[in-house]
Design brief:
With 149 residues, the chain is mostly helical. It has a domain of 103 residues: Four Helix Bundle (Hemerythrin (Met), subunit A), CATH 1.20.120. It is 71% helix and 0% strand.
Length: 149
């Protein structure tokens, strides 16, 4: 499974680089690849909880942990100063650093809470749904404030 995740990450990175003309090794390229992978994992988790994808408890637990790890990594790829590269980030990311960092911490807490719900025995479906919704809400609140559409 880890090999599959690694191959998926490499594929996503390559697709992001090809589609956008962005250097995959640049900060923008790296964070776009991470965000795209976060979206894919989040959609799979949400799909399992909403019945669009067959629920697999072991896979859900593994993917929730992976999402938590991913959710802690993109922030290092936002440089101190605005960048010249093509980005979906609004200038507000750099103008409102404290708010941006707070929303990042909230998302990290939401994914940590999701993982904590997978550690309870038995796993309670309603708790997973509530925690997954909190993850999705945290992503959306940051996008509303800081992503240029």
């Amino acid at each position: 499974m880890k090999l599959k995740l690694g191959l998926l990450a490499l594929s996503v990175s390559a697709l992001v680089a090809c589609d956008s003309g962005i250097d995959p090794n640049s900060p923008v390229g790296k964070r776009k690849a991470i965000f795209k992978e976060m979206l894919n994992v989040s959609e799979d988790l949400g799909g399992m909880l909403r019945g669009r994808v067959p629920y697999d408890e072991a896979l859900f637990i593994e993917q929730a942990a992976h999402l938590d790890l991913l959710g802690r990594t993109p922030w290092q790829y936002f440089p101190e100063l605005p960048e010249a590269d093509k980005s979906s980030a609004k200038a507000d990311v750099w103008e409102q650093q404290e708010k941006f960092k707070q929303l990042a911490r909230e998302m990290e807490q939401a994914t940590a809470n999701l993982v904590a719900s997978t550690q309870a025995t038995p796993i309670i479906s309603s708790a997973l749904k509530q925690r997954m919704q909190a993850v999705e809400d945290s992503c959306e609140s940051c996008h509303q404030a800081f992503r240029a559409y």
